[in-house]
Design brief:
2 copies of one chain form a homodimer. The first copy, chain A, is of the alpha+beta class. The first copy, chain A, has helices at residues 4-18, 46-52, 79-85, 91-97, 109-118, 131-140, 155-166, 170-193, 200-213, 274-292, 300-317, 325-330, 358-362, 400-408, 418-422, 454-461, and strands spanning 22-26, 60-64, 70-73, 102-104, 123-124, 223-225, 245-250, 262-267, 389-392, 395-397, 429-431, 434-439, 442-445. In chain A, β2 and β3 (70-73) form a beta hairpin. The two termini of chain A are 37 Å apart. Chains A and B meet through α3, α6, α9 and α14 of A and α3, α6, α9 and α14 of B.
Chain lengths: 463, 463
């Protein structure tokens, strides 16, 4: 974990912003896979981790915003359990390491919360994403139904957490750099291992094995597919053949659970065809332009737009679309090829703080989500600030279902040469993604260089 | 999945045994890791998988035990979603592949269950281990609280499922063989990769990478530790040094989610010390005797006892214990060194059907659990039948907390030379485990041979 000062500072800042009431931050429990005692690898809740740092199931943190007291509720194993678990650092000692003075047994929590409710104190909760945590909170707060937990979700708490977690301090940048460093190894391994005649899962095993061998876990389900045009595709059962390109969107978590999130597109036989190079070059240009535009104050939606225009210009040169690029983007034509957003915040979560509500993270009272197809998938729109870490991940995707639908509806007809687009129907998709820190001096790409130009990728593949 | 006949036969047999009422078998949903849209790798519920075979979240299977109708409830992606997910086989087609004639949209389920409840029909549920499934059932059955779901847990259904899943048919044996084959590769990799100066996670990454590269997942959290004496130990952060031994208890799932579960104990520097060889030999003898004793009709608790006696005899020769071995076991002395059970059923779950209740799986009305320390951890006691697959995994563990407690209490004093035991205080633990099919002709160890004797393990380590 970080030095205790980090956690003390974070909690103190949170308390000041929330100003009053009781903040409850439940940690995660074990998550059962196929029976209770066969859990998935434990992952602490990101907010709990951010404010309390302890990587152990079964804890609940309380911060009293009025008087500043803090307490962690949890139970040490009893002697009988130590026979099975081995000697454990007492919870009190772990609490000391993160600057929390008070530790109490879990059964002290219900009376404490009863008292607070009797006194009419405000209770602040964050939105929850695990049903076991919701049921636990229902029990702790003595509520009738799981749904009633929602009444304690506190916008002031959400806003305070988002404000704080959005700006990464140097020790967090270090964690993110370390995550991207492991992620870079995963991507190099993938480039070296990808060959015609292998199944996708054979490479996925190798690249996830790299993460695990560094004591890390994948930060999200690895996307590694010859069907890169399918954006939500976690199937790894395809046979890779010469001529295919593979989209590899994968990343590892650092020791303290900060996420790396990198995408590279790999030619299965080691070299791109000229048609693949054309599209690759358009995506790469869009990505490099977007990264270069990153600086404090610029709205990310404008960088997204810049990438869309760049893609339209490139596709225009190839004769897939026509007309002025800005007008085409106004008409939404880019969404036929790039129906998703340019990127998102990155931190303890790969879509950082998505569980708290994307609109709190990526939008403001004045910069509201645009609900048109394509734009509505943009997770981040607001102005960038120094310390933000964002992904920049444009792509071009030939999605048969989408092409068919738009063509049938006669959509974008003045702009799209559907006959030419049809000839790319089996192309697949290409995406290129880096993780970028916003600094006063502009963008800083995190981690070591990862092969990205056509020459670099081909060189890494033939390694 | 298996041929549709397999599923048709399984469901028909289940229906006949349950005789009447509505059997509800909910499949699993995605399980969120750090936010809703960042799930753990999907794992279908084992019972759903056993009876319906479809590896997809969000399904509920219904079997009407009275009239034999069967229906799968679930939703196909709409066109809008296909843009993101790619083309999907319609649910109806998947159902056809497992012999289910009827498919309905999820929203048809509530009215159907309301009607059944109005008609006073019995509803049969299995015990549930995921809170999201419990909340889903609460909603589907229109209940007041998650706890009320329990009232539908049906012993007749549990017994019918356990009876059927306990006896593995040839196509299941094939799956188990395939799981152990991948598991064998994991163990060979671990033996080859383990060296002084590495951290445990470096080898864990390599061996789990092997499973993933075969399109498989670990069947349970890998236990790979120089502290093999700590039985519930999933920490992988220790530096391995010459002289250490590592307990590697790990396994992969087959394509259809049958589990392999193998343990080997590896000398970090490639060769065992003579002291380690002594203990290893005792464990190996106990394991081989136990396996040899496996045959239909023998109670597994007696095989457990046989292994305990064998361990006592071995420790007696080393001078750690004294007295007649059978008497020592009667007095519970073995539990100081071997506080857990000899093995468990193996199948779709690594502790097969543990979620349905261990007593239903491993005990009978007449063979009841012995609640003494050590014996109470025995998961399987009843008589073996052809088609059962069990693990055989004796071990010797020097657990400081347990030694201290027993010594302080003067426990087993006539039998234990505590001074000599103290000299093994830092020894760690040794376990050897194989997966064994009970046949009419006796035991059959599943999978390819995995280095097990001292010579074999040392040879594999110096590969």
């Amino acid at each position: 974990m970080f030095n205790e000062d980090v956690y003390v500072r974070r909690r103190s800042q949170l308390r000041k912003q929330v100003t009053s009431g009781l903040i409850i931050l439940p940690g995660n429990d074990e998550s059962p896979r196929n029976f209770a005692d066969n859990p998935y690898p434990f992952r602490q809740d990101s907010c709990f981790s951010y404010f309390f740092g302890i990587d152990q199931p079964g804890l609940v943190g309380i911060i009293d915003a009025d008087d500043g007291t803090e307490c962690l509720f949890g139970d040490d194993p009893v002697l009988n359990e130590i026979v099975w678990t081995g000697p454990q650092l007492p919870l009190q000692e772990k609490c000391r390491q993160v600057g929390v003075a008070q530790t109490m047994a879990t059964d002290r929590l219900v009376p404490g919360l009863e008292k607070a409710q009797r006194q009419g104190r405000t209770i602040h909760l964050l939105p929850q994403y695990r049903t076991d945590t919701i049921l636990k909170l229902q029990r702790l707060l003595g509520l009738d139904s799981p749904q009633s937990v929602d009444q304690f979700i506190s916008e002031i708490l959400i806003r305070a957490v988002v404000a704080q977690r959005s700006v990464k301090v140097p020790e967090e940048i270090e964690q993110l750099e370390s995550a991207v460093t492991i992620t870079a190894e995963m991507h190099l391994t993938a480039m070296q291992r990808t060959h015609p005649g292998l199944y996708e899962y054979q490479v996925v095993g190798a690249l996830e094995g790299v993460a695990l061998s560094r004591g890390a876990h994948p930060a999200f389900p690895t996307l590694f597919t010859i069907h890169g045009e399918t954006l939500h595709n976690h199937y790894h059962g395809n046979l890779m053949q010469a001529g295919d390109i593979v989209v590899n969107d994968s990343g590892a978590e650092s020791r303290l659970h900060y996420a790396g999130d990198i995408t590279r597109t790999i030619p299965v036989c080691g070299t791109f065809t000229s048609r693949q190079k054309d599209i690759y070059t358009i995506v790469l240009n869009a990505q490099e332009k977007a990264i270069a535009a990153i600086q404090p104050g610029i709205e990310f939606r404008n960088i997204h737009r810049m990438a869309c225009v760049s893609i339209m210009e490139g596709l225009n040169e190839l004769g897939l679309v026509k007309g002025e690029a800005n007008e085409a983007v106004n008409a939404g034509v880019h969404t036929l090829f790039f129906p998703c957003g340019l990127g998102h915040m990155l931190g303890l979560d790969v879509h950082d703080m998505e569980g708290l509500g994307e609109d709190f993270v990526g939008y403001t009272d004045t910069i509201q989500r645009n609900h048109q197809f394509g734009w509505r998938s943009l997770r981040l729109a607001k102005a960038l600030e120094p310390g933000y870490v964002v992904t920049v991940e444009p792509g071009i995707y030939f999605i048969p279902a989408l092409i068919d639908r738009c063509k049938a509806e006669g959509k974008y007809a003045p702009y799209v040469d559907y006959q030419r687009v049809e000839s790319y129907r089996d192309f697949g998709g290409i995406r290129i993604e880096d993780d970028v820190l916003v600094t006063e001096m502009g963008p800083r790409i995190l981690g070591p260089p990862i092969p990205k130009t056509i020459d670099e990728v081909e060189a890494a593949c033939s390694y």
